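Consider this one:
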Amino acid sequence: MKITDVEAIHINPKLCARNANQKPRFSGIDTQTIYKVTLNNGVVGWGDTRGHVTLSDAAVSALVGTSPMPHLHNDHSTGLHGALYDAVGKSLEMPAWQLMGRKYRDRVPVAAWTRPASPEDLAAEVQRAVGEGYMTFKSHSCAYYCVVEQTQAVQDVAPAGFRFHWDFNHNRSLAAVLPIITELEKNHPIVGYIEDPLPWTDIDGWRRLREKTRIPLIMHMPQLTGVQEILHGIADIYMIGGNIGNTVMQGFAYGKANMPTIVQQSGGTLMKALTMHMAAVLPTAT
């Protein structure tokens, strides 16, 4: 089993009709790179990632003519890694998770997501997601909509058991965020998680906030490797993502610490499938 060809194909998938006339909240959300890895046995593996990424001649040369097996645990870009797992899994007739580790679950909860929106539009997005089977929904807060009003609009339309995941963008002070979270905790039980309520470097603020709320706090991209954050008691859940080798390593470490993790990746449907395979083998992925 050898790699004979590697391609990076740039595409621009259209935004869905409801967002066609709106500027995307995140740069490059309507750009993707599709990775195609071909093996000498005729098998083709596919992966994707957000943005237009170019493979250098040196990167391609380092892969072509080699076995894909050693590359499964390297730090390649996530989309390329997905194509490698896809190609090897197809060749060995086994799912990608089986190449990553021991399976802990057969079902993986997946959250829906949208750009910042008015209370009315956010409520409509939640109803759309519920209709598609999602029971967790993530959105970023922003400077021009009221978090409380948005949350109330969602709570008015969401079914029992639905959980809303707020990302506060790690840019508030404790004095600013504590009244908001206190209000959400008191009157809006639909809020299941608060991500990045404070700057990542405000260790004392995170610890103090965690003592004052029952809503689980999520830290995305721990700046001290994640282990130090656990020792300081900063968050209840840690969000991981990026290249597969590092993500799986972090996920196993959090599993040993009995600390829940959320896996977040950027891409399309292929990336979603790959992320679900990773979450299947991480002991505390939620």
